[in-house]
Design goal:
alpha+beta; SH3 type barrels; 1 helix; globular
């Protein structure tokens, strides 16, 4: 998995989306907002992260059409 600054990832165990701030080998520096709007920054090993699958506007439009058809 090739990661770069700006990519959105998640912990393999779940949780909130994290934004990659920096990549240094297997050390991935991530930032995210907590529930209260606090900014967090942590360096995590690449092995605990996976690329996040985010919904796009097109996905939401398709869901709306599916609901109307039902």
């Amino acid at each position: 998995m090739e990661l770069k600054a700006g990519d959105v990832v998640m912990l393999k165990s779940g949780g909130v989306p994290l934004t990659v701030a920096d990549v240094d080998g297997n050390d991935i520096e991530c930032v995210w907002l907590g529930e209260e709007g606090d900014l967090f920054r942590e360096t995590l090993p690449r092995a605990v992260l996976e690329v996040a699958l985010l919904a796009t506007d097109d996905d939401e439009d398709e869901e709306d059409e599916d609901e109307k058809a039902a």
